[in-house]
Amino acid sequence: MDQQPGQTLDGPGSGPGPETRCGFPGCFRPRVQRSGPGAGRPPKYCEDPAHNRGTAKRERERQDRIAAQAVAAAAAQELPTAAAAAAHSESVLGLVDRVGTEVAHLLDQLQRAAARIEELEKENARLTARLDSARAGEQAGEAGK
Ligand SMILES: [Zn+2]
To answer: How far does the centroid of ligand 1 lie from the alpha carbon of residue 37, in Å?
Structure first.
């Protein structure tokens, strides 16, 4: 056996650095040390027989699923906010639509008012002209006396 005594450390802070740590997620025990020629690639896991490439992969997938569920739960909590934002933008669009209708109505009234002013100006000019000719006739009559 190439196991070394005194390597049953567990928990963060008390184990070896990441370079020599067991590759199983959450395991802080040191990797099994193998030395000498012909030993092949050094093991990436500790002496725990449950810690190997297959179980580490499954454990990482399990943790990924938990993380994905947490993200999904967080997204679900944000959903009402998104719905509220959508409803808000709809009400803003409705408001813009109403304002547009109101502006069109006011423009129509403004055009009618402008047409009425033009009419009144013409009427005023006609009355002024009549008044002027009447005065001119009056002056002519007075001058003829
Ligand atoms: Zn381990």
So the answer is: 24
